[in-house]
Amino acid sequence: MVSVLAAKHGQDLVSDIDYRNYLHQWMCHPDQNDIIQARKASDLQSNDVYKADLEWLRGIVWIPVDSVDYVRVTKNQEMVNQIKYKKADLDNCPNFTSVVDPPEIVLVKINSVSQSDVKHKETFNKVLKGKYLFSPDTPYITHSKDMRKLYSTILYKGA
Asked: Rg for the chain (alpha carbons), in Å?
């Protein structure tokens, strides 16, 4: 007898009957909305109803090929697709010939070279950098050259 009781006690420990609290069936009048709402809430919480709904949903397969949303999404994907968008341009790429620059573009290029500081100072930096450019005809320049000779200590000591 003790072994039977021990077996029952072991079965109670192993089974999950005590862990689950199954909700009972509600009996109410059809016009009692608060009890109907409570019953729906308890049904939503019920594990059995959830599993039954899940099994029911697994059997349903619907491919919305002709639905409005599916058609709209496929059209949008075609519009956004970069490969299809660029395909016509890539097909015509070997036939492309460059157009001669119009006069406005030529004028802009000439003006950009004229206004460029680098191009403006290019000859000075290459050829004349560090040298003083002057015209030798002015009297101030000739006077400064003569005064340089007078004040020079090398010429004074060498003479």
From this structure: 50
**CA triple 56-60-62, angle to 5 deg:** 160
**Nearest-angstrom CA–CA distance, 53 and 96:** 62
Q: Judge if 82 and 107 occupy the same domain.
A: yes
Pair of tokens at residue 87: 């395909």
The domain tally of the chain equals 2
Do 45 and 70 belong together in one domain?
no
pLDDT tens, 52-62?
Answer: 777 777 777 66
Closest by Cα among 21, 26, 49, 22 to 36: 26
Question: pLDDT tens-digit profile of 75-116?
Answer: 898 888 888 878 877 787 777 666 788 889 899 988 888 887
